[in-house]
Every structure is written in structure tokens, then in C-alpha cells.
């Protein structure tokens, strides 16, 4: 019987350790990294040195033993509020589980690296970012670790700048779609992702990485285990790997969107697909000779085709916040510009410029958790039970220093006290 060691080499584990350690060093200079998971990892790291060794990897990881060590390789769900009073599903991963997830993610980084480089050259009208730039040195096969590769702000700023510059050009005949994808991380279909990687990545690269039916089966099972049977990929604090996998999945969305746009190439003078993770802007410059009625019909048809293709080919749904902006309309142009001044709700919680007082933030969280009844029609009692680990986040958040932090929590269901 195969196991995860069939494709996952120890060097990915080493790279995962280096990446997480580097993120921990950034806690002192950037409060974006002062999050629940990072406090915990920093506290246990000093006493967890044996986890980094190859013997640990071979015994617990490569052999699939970790599947039976649920306390050591823990995955704990909790909820965080969105700015619109909804709830976002987060997961807390124990230290070795985070390293394992990073290792698997870095395997996918190296597998897809050449494909992404070529994709950028082949699709000059697609501009996409994900909040980092993970990559391996092609000569040494070492993970390249640097501040700009794990810090989201420059990439997010470039995304917003690119959208602004684009809408400032040739606005009279330009239309902008802003796509808002519903529950993006939860809806990522790992089986589809692996299928598209098989289709788009060179066979020689797949062979060199042991990316075959056995590996794909192991990867799919691992993500099912990580998702606690719910599917998707996890959202966790400061998780550059989930950002990368989410970006990789939506790369195929970019390609499919471009295919739909090109179906109308005789009417479209120019176009751009500009994306940050699942935040997508599509600008369409129409031929000035196109009649108003034809414009309306074309945009309606294109919007429908994009919506249908994202659902049929990626299983993604657009929500009610998806909108079309006609830039010839001053009111809609101003509305679009105002939207671009806002920080995406995905980054309001983590943005380093958010100076909301901790007490006020916690108060708002309590209010939102208590008032929200729309999460799969759960009652407050059900939400509280599911969100038991959320109280851990509160206890960590209120501490001024992690230097003497101990992470203990006991109940009938949970035990995150782990000794290495």
C-alpha cells in the first residue's frame, strides 16, 4: 500500500520548517504575523526540535502514521466574523500538522512552478497575485525565502494599482466586471485541481515529481482528512500555502474566463483579467462602433458565460456582490473607484494598519457571533459548540506577550496540550 512518502521527500519537510521559522521571526517586526497560530508555534518551537529531524519525518510522516496521531497532528475548526456579519471558517493546525501541510503545499509549488512561469508569458492580458511569491531555486532546489515572498501587502497594493490604472484608460467604451466568489476556500475542489495540473503540466515534470495516480490519490485523501470531511482547503492564520493553492486553482479560472472573452473577439477591442486570489476584475474595451443595444446584449451574454463556466469547470459560484460597472456612467465609475479604496474584507482582519482596539474588536466579534443565525441555519448553541476553539483565540489575543505563553485546553472533545 502506498503512503505520502511515495511523493513527499524530506527536503519538503525541511523547507516547511524553514518557512514557518522565518514567519515566526517576522512577528517582531510586523504585527500582521501576531496571530493565534503564530503565538502557539513560537511557544512550542523551542521544545519541538526533534520534529525537524529526518527520523521523525520517516517514522511519522512518510509512513502515514500521522493519520492515527490525532492529538499530535490536530486540526481544530473555529469561526471568525466577516465584515458583513457572516462567518468565515478557519482551522487551527497543531505545529507538526502545519509543517505537514506546508510540506504538501511546497510539493505543489515546485510541481507547478514552471507552468506558472510559462502561463504568465503566454497570457499577457492576465495579471494575478496571491499575497506572496513562493518558489524554489531551479538549480539548488532550495526554497527561496525572503520578506517579499511571504508578505502580502506589496502584492495586494500592485493588484489595486493595476486595476486603477486600467480603468483610467479609454473609459468611454469600457465595462468592468467585479466577480465575487462565494465561500472560495471552502469550494475549492482538490480533485479538479489535480486533474487540471495533470492536463496542463508537462509529462516530464509530472514524472520527475512522481505525480501519478498514486500521488493524486494520496493528495486527495490528505486534503479530505485536513478538511474534516467538508472539502475545500483550510484557511489558517498567516497561511501562505493556502494562498498559493487557492491562487493555483484560480489560475485555471483565469484561463477559462479568457476563453469566454475570446468568443467575442470581433466586438472586443481590448481586455484585461486582473485578480488577487478570488477578487477578480475583468475590464472589457468595446469597439466604438458597437451600438448600445449590442453592448447590453454582449455584456449580458459574456457575464452569463463566465458564471456558467466557473461553476461547470471549477464548481465556483458567484454571489450577489458580483457587479458590472459601465465606466461611461459617472456614477458607476465613482462607485468602482470608491470600492478600490477599501481594503478587501479578506484582509481587514490581518491588515497591519488596522488600529482597532483589542477590546472593541472582541466586543464586535461577540456581537456578530451571537447575532448570526445564517450559517447553514445553525442555532447559537450549535455555533458555540462548533466554535469551542474560538475561546482559545480570545485567550491568546488578550495576552501582551507570548514569552511565557502555555497553550492548554481540555474538554471532553478537545485536547491541544501536546508534548514533543
Task: Summarize it.
The protein is α+β, with helices and mostly antiparallel strands and 420 residues long.
Number of extended strands: 7
Helical residue percent band:
40-55%
Class from helix and strand fractions: alpha+beta
Helix-strand pattern, N to C? Answer: HHHEEHEHHEHHHHHEEHEHHHHH
> Strands across the major sheet, in which order?
3-5-6-4-7
In DSSP terms, counting alpha (H) and pi (I) runs of 4 or more, how many helices? 17
Main β-sheet description: 5 strands, mixed
Q: Termini, distance in Å?
A: 28 Å
Question: Which regions have little confidence, pLDDT < 50, spanning 5+ residues?
Answer: 347-359, 365-386, 396-420
Number of domains: 1
- If you average the pLDDT, what whole number results? 84
Strand content: 5-15%
Rg, nearest Å? 22 Å
Inertia-based shape = globular
Question: Would you spell out the secondary-structure blueprint of this structure?
Answer:
Blueprint lengths: L9 H16 L10 H10 L8 H9 L12 E7 L5 E7 L1 H28 L3 E4 L17 H4 L2 H15 L6 E7 L3 H4 L2 H11 L2 H6 L4 H14 L13 H23 L5 E9 L2 E8 L5 H23 L8 E4 L3 H12 L3 H4 L9 H14 L8 H7 L3 H8 L23
Parallel strand pairs: 3-5
Antiparallel strand pairs: 1-2, 4-6, 4-7, 5-6
Helix pairs in contact: 1-4, 4-11, 11-12
